[in-house]
Amino acid sequence: MEHTPEDLEHFSTLQQEEESQGYTPRPRSHIILAWVLVLVVLFAFLGTCYWLAFYR
């Protein structure tokens, strides 16, 4: 099935509209929870290293 030039223009317009919506930043709560998760993982890793080094 071949597309007519009008169809291609329509698809191109739709794609440009989707791209022009731009970047939507994450909510602040997502960013804070991500950093909390990073800190929990970091402290768990460092705690495990400390435990292996001194209490084995």
TrEMBL record:
Keyword annotations of the record: Membrane, Transmembrane, Transmembrane helix
User: Basic and acidic residues bias: where?
Assistant: 1-10
Q: Where is this region: Disordered?
A: 1-22
Q: Where are the transmembrane segments?
A: 32-53
What protein name applies here?
Answer: Uncharacterized protein
Which organism is this entry from?
Candidatus Avoscillospira stercoripullorum
